[in-house]
Amino acid sequence: MRNLDVTTLRSFVAVAELGGVTRAAGFLNLTQSAVSMQLKRLEELLGLNLLDRSSRSVSLTASGEQLLAYARRMVTLNDEVIERLTDQKFEGEIVLGVPVDIVYPAVPQVLQMFTARYPRMKVQLVTSFTKELMDLYRRGEVDVTLTTEIGVASDGETLTTKPLQWIGAKHGNAWKQRPLRLAFGRRCIFRSGVIAALEEANIPWELAVETDSDRTIEATVSADLALHAMLEGTKPDHLEATDHGGTLPELTQQNINLYATEKGKGEVVKVLCDQLRQAYRTM
After folding, report:
1. Which H or E element spans position 217?
2. Number of alpha carbons in the 13 Å side-chain half-sphere of residue 69
């Protein structure tokens, strides 16, 4: 009789969802060799190749895709059983603030893991702009918040630093237009820095759209009507980093910062913060 090991399945799911052994190892707090060994044992147990290793990026074989759905369900069920039977003291709500432009790809994975560990805790996700999120945090209306800033306040912690990139439509030509057309939210923290960089480089510009809606910005940019700026690794799949050949100025580095208050929820806040650290440092 052959039995699947939940720990091994958890590593398999992490590799599939994070796109590689290195990121999965960081997320799981394991070594790369440990994760690789678990995957090898899983393949040997099933007598199947689960990963396509013919290229640099890790992709699943047809058998791996089929196993992934089962593995997710088994890991989730395992965590639910453990939490419901052994730890029922954590109940309540925790409010997490995240700037709209860095929700993906990290936050959904963190919320899934946190909810599996604390099924009786409700996580309320608040998305907005950095300034508004910090105002909510200072007023005690948000327990944990992420921000995008050039610096960091004394009570904050920098998780990672990412460069801002020019973002446009796939194979687009908006970057060639003069004046350069821009699409930004009214309260976007990146907007003033981008405009300053253009003016320093003596590149004329104009706002093609000024809105509070990210959907409007994405639609305008994907139609090749304007450029936008986003942190490296956070752009949606239907847009791309603009290959402008040095005709546009380099943009600033930005910190992704974490601010948290225990406020009577010490352990769950600590766990959520640890999961956010792992997710953004391996992003």
Report:
1. helix 214-222
2. 4
